[in-house]
Structures are given as structure tokens and as C-alpha cells.
Amino acid sequence: MNLSRPLLLASNSPRRKELLTGLGLDYSVRVKEVHEEFPQHLKRAEIAEYLASHKADAYKSDIENEVVITADTIVCLGNKVLNKPQSHHEAAEMLRALSGTCHEVITGVCLLSKEGKTVFHDITKVYFKELTLAEIDFYINHYKPFDKAGAYGIQEWIGMIGIERIEGSYFNVVGLPVQKLYTYLVQLGYLIVD
């Protein structure tokens, strides 16, 4: 596999770095601070795509030959979006709301080059068992999920003991739909598979 141009990952997420490395791709990381606000009329997948595209816009004037990858993952319970919790109390509220239900994890991805941008998303359904208050407290106290939308990481303890099944991409829940990303990189000619 060869890249036709350099890849630039615009994310500090260790999980996204790990997934991109897992694809066997060389890339560099450059991160800019971007406010993650979105118009209130947007719903679900529109929010994830808007945020990924908005993050990419910060790199428009900088890029030459690179392809910039930006992403944003949101957790939706019905039409309610669960962002990153600001406190132990808020994290516990989110996990209590997710307990015993099905929710959707949506990751929006943007590929930006000098020629333009391609924006797409992936959706995974996640089914949680009924979580006890003790399990919720143990997880928050030991794993501090304050940097995670919906207050949990599927790859952590809570995912191992609490998630009964998923429908869709596991990696999408981790933070990057790598199968779709790979497909778009090939289709757009950024990745050549020999």
C-alpha cells in the first residue's frame, strides 16, 4: 500500500492514532484548537459531520499536498446528544441514562485536500445491560471518562462488563470508522493498494 500524498491526522486522540497506525499508514499529527459548537437545528449525523468539517476548515489555508483527516464522535440517545461529561455527577447521569438501553454512536469524518473535502459518517448501535450504581461509580472513579462522549470508552472496563452487543463497526465506537475511511482513501486515489 502506498499513499499518493502525505496524511495529516488533526486529532490528539490516542485511540484515533492507534486505529490509523493499525491500518498500516504513515501519517503526521497536527492539532489546532477549534471550538466544538454547532448550530442548534442540526440533528444526530448532521452534527457529527458538521463538527468534522468545521475542524477541517481550520487547516484550509495551511495545506499544500497533504490530506487532512478530522473526526468527531457523538453519542445519541434518541435525539439527545450526550457530550463529554464535565463532572462525576454528569458522567453518572449519562451512564444511568444509557443503562439497559440501545443508543447510537455516530462518527463524522472529513478528508480535506487542496481539491476539496469529502465528509461522511458511520453509525453503530450499542446495547448496554442494566448497570448497577456500584458499577457506574467504580468505572468513573477508576477510568475518569471525562474526555469521552457519552462518558464511556467501549474498549475499557465498562465496555467489557456492560455492553451486550453492537450493530455496526466496533472501531467507529472507539472513534474512527476505519473500514469506511480506508474505502474513501482508496476511492479518492489517496491510497494505492498494489
From TrEMBL:
Entry cofactors: a divalent metal cation
Site (Important for substrate specificity): give the residues: R15, T73, Q155
Q: Name one Pfam family in it.
A: Maf
Q: Which reaction does it catalyse?
A: UTP + H2O = UMP + diphosphate + H(+); dTTP + H2O = dTMP + diphosphate + H(+)
Give the EC number. 3.6.1.9
Question: Record's superkingdom?
Answer: Bacteria
Where along the chain is the active site annotated? D72 (proton acceptor)
Where does it live in the cell? Cytoplasm
CDD domains, from UniProt? Maf
Q: What is its main location?
A: cytoplasm
Q: What does this protein do?
A: Nucleoside triphosphate pyrophosphatase that hydrolyzes dTTP and UTP. May have a dual role in cell division arrest and in preventing the incorporation of modified nucleotides into cellular nucleic acids.
Family under the similarity heading? Belongs to the Maf family. YhdE subfamily.
Q: What is this protein called?
A: dTTP/UTP pyrophosphatase
- Native source organism of the sequence: Pontibacter aydingkolensis
Higher taxonomy: Bacteria, Pseudomonadati, Bacteroidota, Cytophagia, Cytophagales
